[in-house]
Design brief:
about 425 residues; alpha+beta; 8-stranded mixed sheet; 16 strands; about 20% strand; binds adenosine-5'-triphosphate; binds magnesium ion
């Protein structure tokens, strides 16, 4: 390749033919599980008004502060390639009046997302997520069902060593009271905090729990915990979610340091990690976001959802390096002379309309190499068109017979039928 050959941008990747089978299988499994539980597929546009994410993900988040691909279009509008799926789903929910439907409205998606991040194994700039959102109900059974569905999906896909961490962030009231307590605590110890944590004491003190900075971690070990400050209704809601998970025999750990990356979470939050992954161990996560629809201008609408990364699911389940078997070929049509190409072409169309997987010689090879190619494709039958008589060869038994061209499709169909 010459040095100025164009390559894919950093942090993106191609899904090559052999790899698409594992993805299709994942999608089929997800569809069966989620649609079986009443979730309906939704697809939103790849870009949205920037304001949707600024408002719906939260100005103090990493996503909005440094990970968005934002562009100005020809008419001067600010648009952003979607970095996540929850805000777009809520936007669509409102825009199409789905809030008038019986609750909960359950939606799922499988789409690509875009974040400007440091690219590495398991972390890309265009990546794929599967997600599920249930809008319109604050019933704790919605939370538990949502979590169980993701656990089931991961288990069925063979994602090993999964850990589920669970917490509750409470609602706006318990959170703002706690925020003040935490801010006081952080101010008292601000000299030991990482600069970026100190800078965010005002805007997003909870993120201090996420810091990898050693001295900050030591400070956070003794920080007050939100879980200890929940209001009675929030504590009750959390207890009900846990009870349902216990009843479903889902194993989880309560983690009072769990802080999700988006600003809009309330009450239940959870994260699933797999020890089968390296440093990027997060497979999926989500939680309840009872205020998001309101923040986007809609009516008060409790909701719960999650998203999981496709690449990490494929890596953790070992499906990423599986090679897909080549597609079966029932009939390969070869021909002895170039002037027979049109007849071969017509025969392939006829074979396909009869339901056969058929291919023909498309690269001008001489007959011997055509037959070699048919062999490589593992074609079950090969027709060799000649003038006036053609030959049909059964590649399994090696038997061959003379047939009229217009009898070939019939002979193949009969041969395949007799096999079973
Ligand atoms: P992380 O902590 O790995 O940055 P996150 O908290 O940003 O994850 P979410 O926004 O909750 O992730 O997205 C849910 C899931 O999407 C993650 O658990 C992960 O599997 C996947 N994911 C997120 N960002 C990326 C990325 N850049 N490349 C590949 N997968 C990703
Ligand atoms: Mg991230």
């Amino acid at each position: 390749m010459s040095p100025d050959t164009i390559k894919a941008p950093r942090g993106t990747y191609d899904v090559l033919p052999g790899q698409s089978v594992a993805r299709a299988a994942l999608e089929a499994r997800a569809r069966a599980i989620l649609e079986g539980a009443g979730y309906e597929r939704i697809e939103t546009p790849a870009f949205e008004h920037t304001d949707l994410f600024a408002r719906g993900v939260g100005a103090s988040t990493d996503i909005v502060q440094k990970e968005m691909y934002t562009l100005t279009d020809g008419s001067g509008r600010s648009l952003t390639l979607r970095p996540e799926g929850t805000a777009p789903v809520c936007r669509a929910y409102l825009e199409h009046g789905m809030h008038k439907r019986p609750a909960p409205v359950k939606l799922w998606y499988l789409s690509s997302f875009f974040r400007y991040e440091r690219a590495q194994a398991g972390r890309y700039r265009q990546f794929w997520q599967i997600g599920a959102e249930a809008l319109g109900s604050d019933d704790p059974a919605v939370d538990a069902e949502s979590i169980v569905l993701l656990c089931t999906l991961l288990a069925e896909l063979g994602v090993g060593d999964v850990r589920l961490r669970l917490a509750s962030l409470g609602d706006a009231d318990s959170r703002s009271e706690y925020r003040e307590r935490l801010q006081d605590y952080l101010q008292t110890h601000s000299d030991r905090l990482a600069p970026e944590v100190r800078d965010r004491i005002g805007a997003n003190p909870l993120r201090a729990f996420d810091s990898q900075h050693e001295a900050t971690r030591a400070v956070m070990a003794d920080a007050p915990r939100l879980l200890d400050c929940l209001s009675a209704p929030d504590a009750e809601h959390f207890a009900a979610v846990r009870e349902l998970l216990d009843a479903a025999e889902v194993r989880y750990e309560i983690d009072s340091t769990l802080v999700r990356g988006l600003d809009y979470y309330t009450r239940t939050v959870f994260e699933l990690t797999s020890d089968a992954l390296g440093a990027q161990s997060g497979v999926g996560g989500g939680g309840r976001y009872d205020r998001l629809v309101e923040v986007l201008g809609g009516p008060q609408t409790p909701a719960m959802g999650w998203a999981a990364g496709i690449e990490r699911i494929l890596i953790a389940s070992g499906a990423a390096d599986q090679q897909a078997p080549a597609a079966a070929v029932d009939l390969f049509v070869a021909f002895t002379e170039p002037h027979l190409r049109a007849r071969a072409f017509a025969l392939v169309q006829l074979a396909r309309s009869a339901g056969l997987a058929a291919q023909m010689e498309l690269a001008g090879r001489a007959l011997k190499r055509q037959l070699g190619h048919a062999d490589r494709l593992k074609a079950r039958y090969v027709a060799i068109l000649d003038d006036p008589q053609s030959v049909l060869k059964d590649m399994q038994s090696g038997r061959q017979e003379d047939v009229a061209s217009d009898a070939i499709v019939h002979a193949v169909l009969r041969g395949l039928r007799d096999m079973v």
